[in-house]
Write a structure and sequence with these properties.
By secondary structure, this protein is an alpha+beta fold. The protein is built from 15 helices and 17 strands.
């Protein structure tokens, strides 16, 4: 548990995830993102009198699937409720949600920090509908109801997170699980994943909970981490000054890197919940629950453990690959299977190094670069055989992506095979030593970095083809006899 100047933080997270169904939660309107404002609405999602909701079957199945993956108990008897509040982007002035009989409860999610596991309780996972979206201009606001009614999953953690870093790990793990289940794209830029945080602080070792604040408007995991850090320090400073912490909702300002008050915090009684009269209670049979359970794929931490056991990957390397995306993990495993060597480390280093760098530059995953797995393995093997240097391999990688040619063809056509012949390299080394007496003297006087300059000069003379490892060994041998 993280201790802050004699205090400790208690954090609970409420995560909202849009499910990627083709139609909304209670009507047949499209959920396609980016369409013209207010073009995907109907009397049901706009709350016209007499319009009746009908539950989206796939949304319910997706919700059960996520709840099962989070180790929750599925309630066979569940119902929907009206959550009443008044806001411009809520056309009905209420939201169809779940209150006292949610879809599921009592689950957990394990996170790992520095190799140690910590279990975070999941209080409930329930299904509801999303609100619309307000677009604020300088002197007025516009409302787009396209988002109103999109199926939304709310995942509420227990207040068992004790630091911003734990919150970051929780969110990263949760996002990865949901993406592996293929029920949401979890794109925070599109609003598919949103997070609110409840934070309080107390004296280290105390049992009770302090007064909590809720922080909203965090549009990235980095923002969540920064907002939590600021709010924890703000509350501690108030307690040190014997000032009262107000239970309120605060917004995160990403430019000023601080939170500011929005409104006093509502409680459940303020929403005047009552059962949704236009939807009957639902009974989810045990057979249905088990049939959905059978569709759950290998989840991220199961895959991480298997990669460590089957391919000898370190926990760090396995996490980078698996948490990148489900498609990237499948692609990486295909590459590893094609490599004959039992030592996968050089290949993995290339995947999470140059290839992920190229993928980030091109705004895709490594699986989206369009390189067949066998070509990646071929390129790494060229490096292992010392046909080309690692640096050359990175430039060849770019050309493979841009031209769709094989690494072998590019290396052959451009005559990139590096020089490893000791006799040829010794001749170049002798020339460089003769031409650079100052660097030679620097090396001999103890400036070990001077050797890299000499290696660089040999690389120049060879047009980048000299094997740098062999060059360095020859230089050291020559100068040790000087």
């Amino acid at each position: 548990m993280s201790i802050y100047s004699g205090y400790e933080a208690v954090i609970g997270l409420e995560v909202h995830i849009q499910l990627k169904t083709k139609t909304k939660a209670f009507c047949g309107c499209s959920t396609e993102f980016g369409r013209e404002p207010n073009s995907q609405v109907c009397p049901v999602c706009l709350g016209f009198p007499g319009a009746l909701p009908v539950l989206n079957r796939l949304a319910l199945e997706y919700a059960v699937k996520v709840a099962l993956a989070l180790n929750c108990k599925i309630q066979e008897f569940t119902k929907f409720d009206r959550k009443n509040y008044f806001y411009p982007d809520l056309p009905k002035n209420y939201q169809i949600s779940q209150f006292d009989l949610p879809l599921s409860k009592d689950g957990f999610l394990d996170i790992y920090l520095q190799g140690k596991a910590k279990r975070i309780g999941i209080r409930r996972v329930h299904l509801e509908e999303d609100a619309g979206k307000l677009i604020h201009k300088e002197d007025f606001s516009l409302v787009d109801f396209n988002r109103a009614g999109i199926p939304l999953l709310e995942i509420v953690s227990e207040p068992q997170i004790n630091s911003p870093q734990e919150a970051y790990e929780y969110l990263s793990t949760l996002k990865s699980i949901v993406q592996y289940l293929d029920v949401s794209d979890c794109d925070m830029e599109k609003g598919s994943l949103r997070c609110d945080a409840n934070i309080s602080v107390r004296e280290a070792g105390a049992e009770g909970l302090g007064t909590k604040t809720e922080v909203k408007n965090m549009n990235s995991f980095k923002s969540v981490k920064e907002a939590l850090g600021f709010e924890i320090e703000r509350q501690i400073e108030l307690l040190k000054q014997d000032k009262k912490i107000i239970q309120e909702t605060r917004l995160w300002d990403a430019e000023k890197l601080e939170t500011f008050s929005m409104r006093t915090k509502e409680e459940s009684k303020d929403y005047r919940y009552f059962p949704e009269p236009d939807l009957p209670p639902f009974i989810i049979s045990k057979d249905k629950i088990e049939s959905i359970r059978m569709t759950i794929p290998e989840l991220p931490y199961q895959k991480i453990q298997r990669f460590m056991n089957e391919y000898g990957l370190s926990e760090y390397d396995a996490k980078v690959i698996v948490f990148s995306s489900k498609d990237d993990a499948i692609y990486a495993e295909e590459c590893m299977k094609r490599l004959d060597s039992s030592d996968k480390k050089p290949l993995v280093n290339f995947l999470i190094g140059p290839m992920m760098s190229e993928a980030n530059n091109r705004n895709c995953g490594i699986s989206g670069l369009g390189i067949p797995a066998e070509e990646v393995v071929s390129l790494v093997q060229h490096v292992q055989r010392q046909d080309i240097s690692y640096l050359t391999a990175k430039s060849v990688l770019k050309e493979v992506i841009d031209t769709s040619q094989s690494p072998t063809k590019i290396i052959k056509d451009k005559n990139l095979i590096q020089i490893s012949d000791s006799n040829a390299l010794t001749k170049l080394v002798d020339e460089v030593i003769k031409e650079n007496p100052k660097s030679v003297q620097d090396y001999l006087s103890g400036k070990s970095n001077a050797i890299m300059f000499l290696v660089g000069q040999v690389m120049k003379k060879s047009n980048g083809k000299a094997n740098p490892k062999i060059v360095q060994e020859i230089i050291k041998g020559r100068l040790s006899n000087a």
